[in-house]
Amino acid sequence: MKESEQQKIFSSWLADHKGLIFKVLRAYASTPEDREDLFQEIAAQVWRSIPNFRRESAVTTWIYRISLNIAISWSTKEKRKVNPQSIDTVEHLISENDTPLDERLAWLYEEIKKMNEVDRSLTLLLLDGFSYKEMAEMIGISESNIGVKIHRIKRELTKRSAKYQNHGV
Fold it and tell me: Mind listing the pLDDT tens digit for each residue in 104-138?
């Protein structure tokens, strides 16, 4: 694959999927600096993975899987400095929307950050409408286990939401 073709695909993928990448960033990184570091790691891995994409899954699934795997790895290790190629040429495509988050959405992201890596990943995938089968393929656990975990996540978030609404906690 020519570098110009890879650059075109990279720019397109980042522009088309920046929303899902930012969801992962919000769920795994707390500060703007951490989000930037994590984004660079995700972008670098997306760049490296383009030649290996075999179209066996949707691009969205591929990008999500890369983003989640990098975020999980990043959250359990010390941050590393990555200098991905060609990031400067697409920076305008990846700037986060400056619209402030709704208070309830901000609360939800804070609750998601408190979850373990698997539950955090499942919650993001659920919010984006992935099927249990797709989630199982991305996370590497059975569909039935996905169902059990999602049921528990929903139950816990419902309980926390009631507490938040009643006490402003």
Answer: 888 888 899 899 888 998 999 998 888 999 888 88
Mean per-residue pLDDT, 23-27: 89
Question: How many structural domains compose the chain?
Answer: 2
Say whether both 71 and 84 belong to one domain.
yes
Say how far apart CA 63 and CA 13 lie, in whole Å: 8
pLDDT given for residue 101 in this prediction: 62
Q: DSSP letters along 42-111, please?
A: HHHHHHHHGGG--SSS-HHHHHHHHHHHHHHHHHHS-------TTSGGGGGGSPPP-SPPPHHHHHHHHH
Within this chain, do residues 156 and 85 fall inside the same structural domain, yes or no? no
74/116 same-domain check = no
Q: What is the pTM of this model?
A: 0.64
Please tell me the total number of residues recorded for the chain in this structure. 169
Helix axes 143-167, 103-113, angle to 10 degrees: 130
The answer for residues whose C-beta is within 8 angstroms of residue 15's C-beta and 6 or more apart is: 90, 93
